[in-house]
Amino acid sequence: MSNKKEAYLYISAMLRARETKMLTREKAERMLDAPSFEESAKILADCGYEDMSQMSAREIDQALAAHRDTVFKELAGLAPNETIVDVFRIKYDYHNAKVILKAEAMNSDESGLMSGSGRVAPQAMLAAYNEDRCRDLPGGLGAAMEEAKGVLARSANPQLADFVLDKAYFAELAGLAEALDSEFLTGYVAILADSTNLKSAVRTLRMGKDADFMRQALVPGGNVSPARIAAAASGEGLASLFNTRLLKDAAALGAAAVDGGTMTAFELACDNAVMAYMADAKLTAYGEEPVVAYMAAVENEITTIRMILTGRLAGIEPQVIRERLRDMYA
């Protein structure tokens, strides 16, 4: 038993026990088949969530965000290396950076859209941006925000600024995986980047944009390089690049989507490929793998719960919601 693996022994055992209480496909089906929104929400009591049966859509979002924040904070205090939690926190830092830049572009206050799940408190990030102190922000976040701000000033195009932040996010994500010296985590970053790039490439081709635009939209860190993706001139070309165990089905659906097929099934298959990668963690008794997989599962669970509850609250047919649900880890 290596010292590195042994350090995760306690937290891995704790999370394995918690996995038994997570939302399963069977519970999700019960939520969809429940006679009312209220009955649907009450099923979540068995999964450790507060009672959301009387909440509005906004209150549901807040409750789910609070649940995620609690999980992140707890695991940061228990994990041998807090950086492993940062792998999931930084997504919200870059989300908040996008909100700040878009608010500036629109000359509006969008602070209500910011998340508290990142490494940096939303108001602290906003203050750093407004006071030209982005260099004080962790990792590559500050430099990326300054670059994105310059791109926005020159182009007045928030999408191009988003591309800058997306590249920085994945570069920092890959750096964290390397710093943790985790083969499993490195593989997670790679499948996440590949899935993201496949989506971006298909959207670019559907919009009729050129290779230069695609190159701006693609992110680093995947198994397939952005240069090879940009060189693919069709959906069939993309399908051959991503013809791997996890992304084969998504790539085929992507090729169909380029020719006018549904984007919903394609994007769902991309997300499911990431969860399929996480399923391999079930074969590992202890180590960083169960911790990474648990956090990814919590994120996926929260997304599923939000889709079901807000969908039921809005009166959307259960079958329509069901078609958009990702695969479950538990």
What features would you highlight for this structure?
330 residues; mainly alpha; 0% strand; 17 helices
Provide the residue-averaged pLDDT: 92
Number of domains: 3
Overall form: globular
Structural class: mainly alpha
In angstroms, what separates the terminal alpha carbons?
A: 27 Å
H and E string: HHHHHHHHHHHHHHHHH
- Uncertain spans, ≥5 residues at pLDDT below 50? none
The profile of the biggest β sheet is: none
Number of helices: 17
Q: Which percent range describes the beta-strand content? A: under 5%
Number of DSSP strands? Answer: 0
Quaternary assembly: single chain
Residue share in helices?
A: 55-70%
Query: Roughly how many Å is the radius of gyration?
Result: 20 Å
What does this structure look like?
The mean pLDDT is 92. The protein is built from 17 helices and no strands. The longest helix has 26 residues, at 288-313. The chain has 330 residues and is mostly helical. It is globular. The protein folds into three domains: 1-54 and 285-330, no CATH class; 87-181, no CATH class; 184-283. Helix content is 69%, strand content 0%.
State the gist of this model.
This protein is mainly α and 330 residues long. Helices cover 69% and strands 0% of the residues.
